[in-house]
Write a structure and sequence with these properties.
Strand order of the largest sheet: 1-7-8-6-5-2-3-4
Distance between the termini: 29 Å
Number of strands: 8
Strand content: 15-25%
CATH class: Alpha Beta
Bound molecules: zinc ion
CATH architecture: 3-Layer(aba) Sandwich
Largest sheet: 8 strands, mixed
Number of helices: 8
Order of helices and strands: EEHEHEHEHHEEHHHE
Helix content: 25-40%
Length: about 240
Amino acid sequence: MTTTQLQPMPDDWRRALAVVAHPDDLEYGCSAAIAAWTDGGREVAYVLATRGEAGIDTLEPERCGPLREREQRASAAVVGVSAVEFLDHKDGVIEYGTALRRDIAAAIRRHRPELVITLNHRDTWGGVAWNTPDHVAVGRATLDAAGDAGNRWIFPDLTEQGLQPWDGVRWVAVAGSSTPTHAVDATSGLERAVHSLLEHRTYIEALTDEDPETYVRGFLTQHAEATGERFGGRPAVAFELFGR
Ligand SMILES: [Zn+2]
């Protein structure tokens, strides 16, 4: 176990855009940082590639999608995020490629963020804990789209639609990375992160027999404290930061 300390995340920015595959991807660890940022007056918007419609075994996708969309909007509101968009790719079979890059580049041009956040794009969570293909596809496409958004010639149809190039993304921060470099103090946001994840109640009740609040609080607190061992002992959310 390395004891290298994580660096504080840059804070000289005003707008962030979080791009992930599924409802709950941001709530499993990242939303304490988002609460801290919105408290500080920063704008954060969410873009989800899918509605998570294939995420609950006992619920068919046509009913599951709208329900998880509602849970995601409620979950975002708890941490001060009101802009939540869905790209309507298909849950479980998101394809990495130019269609996905184009959709994410369009979202970046609409929101004009300095900081883009996504979830682990690598094959594993570390060791032999295999990642899902949706996370890999969306994470990679987001890292790529941060560049695509600034180039008027890569997706010229976006410019024709009035979405001007945005070359202002300075960093892409990857949550859930097994090789993090930076962190955000989660002390002030942790309680809201618990309530934010709890909004995914249908999903969590299908996932575990434990009391939802006990499960959520245990999971998030344990992760934040483990990260804190590399961040001066404060509970923290870690990111692998890619500068641009
Ligand atoms: Zn996910």
